[in-house]
Amino acid sequence: MGDVPSEESARDGLFSFLSRRRFLKASLVAAGAILGVGGGGLLALRGRAPRVDGLRVLDPHEYRTLQSLVEVMLPKTDAIPIDAASMDLPRTFDDFLADEPEHNVKDLRRALVLIEFGPLAFDKKPTTFSRLGVAERTAHWNEWARSDKVLRRQVSIAMRKFFNLVYFDQEQVWPHIGYPGPSMKRTPSVTP
C-alpha cells in the first residue's frame, strides 16, 4: 500500500506549508501575549494603515506589512543603490495573489498575521512588525530565518524567494548585478 497524500500535502503553492493546523499551533504560542493585550488592544496595537487604491486581494494592513518587509529584506546598499520600497513590490504580490487559488491566499493571510504580530507573539514586545524601527525590524526579521520554529523559517524562505524574484526581475536592478537583460532584447533585429 503506497502513501496517499493528504489534502494538506497535495496543495501546491507558495504558502502551502501554512496549514490551518500549523497556524493554530503557532498561534497558541502567541495566545498568552495576545490575551494579555485583548482583542481591542490588538486593533489599537495594529493601528490604522494608509489607504491603498487598486488592491485586488490585499487589504491596506497586509499591504503595509509587506511594504515594511520589503524595506528590511531589500535595503538600499552601495552595491545596489536602489530603494526597493519605491518599487511597489507589495502590489506585485497582490497581482500575483489575484490569480492564485483561495487556499493560497488564506495561507498568505495567515503568514502576514504571524509576521505583523511577530514582535508581540515571539519577542513579547507590545508592538507590531510595521511599527518597529528599521534596525529593530531588520533584526526581528533576520531571526525568522534562524528560528528554531520551522514555521517561522518557512515563512521567511517563502517571502524571501518571492520578493527576490520580483526585485531582481526589475530592469533598473540588472546593471548592478551584471545582467545585460533578456537575450531577445540584445539580439539585433533582422529585416528580410
Largest sheet: none
Number of domains: 1
Low-confidence stretches at least 5 residues in length (pLDDT < 50)? 1-11, 32-37
Query: What average pLDDT do the residues reach?
Result: 82
Question: Roughly how many Å apart are the termini?
Answer: 62 Å
What does the overall shape look like? globular
Number of distinct helices: 11
| Strand-pairing-aware structural class | mainly alpha
Residue share in helix: 55-70%
Structural account:
The chain is an all-alpha fold. It has one domain. The protein is built from 11 helices and no strands. It has helices spanning 7-10, 20-37, 39-46, 60-73, 89-98, 102-116, 118-123, 134-146, 150-168, 174-177, 183-186. Helix 2 runs parallel beside helix 6 and helix 4 crosses helix 8. The longest helix has 19 residues, at 150-168. The protein starts with 6 loop residues before the first helix and ends in a 6-residue tail after the last helix. Mean pLDDT is 82; it is low at 1-11 and 32-37.
Identify the notable features of this structure and list them briefly.
192 residues, 11 helices, 60% helix, 0% strand
